[in-house]
Amino acid sequence: MRPIILFSKMDFSQSNLFGYIEDLQELTIIERPVRRSLKTPEEIERLTVDEELGDIERAVYLLSSGQDIQGTSVVANLPVLMRQNPAETLRRVLPKIREVLHVAGVEMQLTAAVSFLTVLQEESVSIHTYSHSFLHIILQNLEHRDAGVSNAWLETLLAVIEALPKETIRHEILNPLVSKAQLSQTLQSRLVSCKIMGKLANKFEAHIIKREILPLVKSLCQDVEYEVRICMCRQLEHIAQGIGTELTKTVVLPELVELARDEGSSVRLAAFETLVNLLDMFDADDRSQTVLPLVKSFCEKSFKADESILVSLSFHLGKLCNGLYGIFTPEQHLRFLEFYKKLSTLGLQQENGHNDNQLQLQTLEQEKKYISVRKNCAYNFPAMIVFVDPKNFHLELYSIFFCLCHDPEVPVRYTMAISFYEVAKLLNSGVYAIHKELVTLLQDESLEVLDALVGHLPEILELMTNGGENSGSESKLLSIPDLIPALTTAEQRAATSLKWRTHEKLLQKYACLPHIISSDQIYYRFLHRMLTIILTNNVLPVQKAAARTLCVYLRYNRKQEQRHEVIQKLIEQLGQGKSYWNRLRFLDTCEFIMELFSKSFFCKYFFLPVLELTHDPVANVRMKLCYLLPKVKSTLKIPTDKHLLQQLELCIRKLLCQEKDKDVLTIVKRTVLELDRMEISMDAEQLEKEKQQNEGRSTNINDKIFEKKRRDSKTSSVLAKSITLSVPGNSSGTSAGKEDKKSKLVRSQSFSTQALHPKYSNIDKCPNKSSATGYTSSVSGLGKSCMLSFSDDSFRTHSTGNSGNAAFPSSSSSRNLFNSADQKTTGNKESQSRKMSIKNRKSNS
């Protein structure tokens, strides 16, 4: 009864209910053939192969007695067999493949063509061995009855020709080609011959081509089948490049002229496209006397009798106009420009009031053709600017540019958006003339158009604001009123769509705006929008793009009030946000800040807020922070940031001792090892002051030593008599010298810019006790879990019960440590001087 109640609630009619039940019955019927299609035990037995067989034996067995699918797998595995055991594969497997291919199906044939090509590309064997073993198999399967298989083998052969030596090509390919290209051969054989001849034209000298290949070319250009004439016509470009300009003029050009007047429209189209591609090889006489009349004839017929070539003609028109530019008369120049304008509005005559009845009768096929023509005109627009000269753009082409940017079809506007940057570069100082069209495309209803325009948006905006007629601030101010609303509208439309990649790309390109508009405009129109995207958007790449762009805006903002406000919001809303997702984005933002800002800026504003996240309740945040710590440490400078280094070390110590998440703890240990290998950068100015202080201390010590030596030289004769008494004094002096060195070492270590790198034995557990007998002994008691780079020599660990927590002493304790060492050194020196005075009195007495 429950299903009936459900249907009554959903208000299904009785007929719909019965239809639904019938659909379910059909689904149950479909399951039965699936069960029957399972393999029977006999079929499984036939597919089973002895596991003890080697790769070569298994391949031979499957090709000999296996099923088609097993043979195909062996053929697909041929490159692997050639890499492992080429000799045995060529001797045993390849002959079997050759036998099987005679009766193989389409799938195995296509697989073999790909495998043979892979063997050639991997160079598993020498080219001589390849031509001896594989080339004959390729040539045998070229004329396969299936066109797809034949084309696959032909592609393999054309790739092989590139690597074969000339003699092999001549004997194995060129000589048989003469017979294969004859009219008596099959259509497929003649088509293959056309493509092979196009490839051979670049392999032989001109006289060989003239003697052995050109007669075949002429024959195939006059073939009875239009497919052969088309194929040979498209190969004439390659043949012309191989034989040079002289033979092209005498042999190829007459054939092209004849093919351009062929009865078949597709043949004429192929001849036209080949003529355009070979324009550079013709001299001025050939262009004016032969090519230009043909082109004019094509243009006239395209609207009257042969609309099939309109698409191709519109695609090549830019290249054609610039290729024939030098031979145009003013009338011809104007005629081709008008022809381009007519093509640019083809199919839009209704807007101009022309051909209303004809437009209503247009078929869907015609509409698609006209859209393609206008799209090609948009593609050729930069070439037409060169054709008319950028100075004449506003007079000659601006109306067409306006129409193409406002075309009702998306593909046309999309093409204009792609070529917009090229147009802007060509216009140079006159680029401000297309400012309105830039705004139009930025506000286009299709995100595809916006995505195409965004690719070069920074360059376009720079040209638009700095390259206008009145270069400088004046043109910059003129463009801003319309530009900023268009940019904000474009971002909002991308944000509300599902195409997040377009939104990400747009935000990345908006990082150029500090070079375009003022920091106040960025602050009020874009900067807060970036912060909103970071806080509210759900797509991670979009959030990261917004974060980086926001950091760029902050970097170029010189107003301290605005800077401090943004920094405070980043810390409060992201770093201290309620959502762990926001706190993760804060770490991403800090990474961008380290990339874009100075080290001192990061240390001043963001170092401590980042370290506060070591206490974050979410493991993912702590884990991301651990990955970031090496970069954080790299921002420090010693001794300026010595207190920050202490805070960093304390945070890592707490993580090691208190972290409960296994994944985070593993990353912490890894990070500790990485931090231990890092070296901290030096603060050069501070170091120079400390060096001067150290030099002053060492100078005083050297003066005292020099004074002592002077006194010793005066009483050398007396000291010789009482040498036994002076020995203890010398040892005392030595110990005093050692103490003096130790005290200097302690001072230098306290200002050292390089971290100590202690070696430890265990990193799995945090220590419970630490000795207080100095820095070295305390580190050795901590174990490997505290493998850190400590640059402050005053650091000590104090045991508080069994908690294992480490504490940093104040700077006064470090001064006491240095003062005690200095007092010991001074005491030793005083005792030594007293002993020396006693000796002098004894000697005088």
3D structure, described in words:
With 845 residues, the chain is mainly alpha-helical. Helix content is 75%, strand content 0%. The protein has 45 helices and two strands. The protein has a two-stranded parallel sheet. The N and C termini lie far apart (132 Å). Residues 836-845 have a biased composition (Basic residues). Residues 704-713 have a biased composition (Basic and acidic residues). It is found in: Cytoplasm. HEAT repeats lie at residues 213-250, 252-290. InterPro entries: ARM-like, ARM-type_fold, HEAT_type_2, PPP4R4.
Give a concise summary:
This protein is mainly α. The protein contains 45 helices and 2 strands.
Query: Structural class per helix/strand content?
Result: mainly alpha
**Multimerization state:** single chain
Apparent shape: extended
Indicate the radius of gyration in whole angstroms: 43 Å
How are the strands of the largest sheet arranged?
Answer: 1-2
Report mean pLDDT, rounded to a whole number. 78
Q: Give the percentage of residues in beta strands.
A: under 5%
Helical content stands at over 70%
Termini separation comes to 132 Å
Number of strands: 2
Alpha plus pi helix count: 45
Main pleated-sheet profile: 2 strands, parallel
Stretches where pLDDT is under 50 for at least 5 consecutive residues are 1-15, 29-35, 468-478, 717-827
Biased composition (Low complexity): 802-821
Biased composition (Basic and acidic residues): 704-713
Keywords: Coiled coil, Cytoplasm, Phosphoprotein, Repeat
GO molecular function, one term: protein phosphatase regulator activity
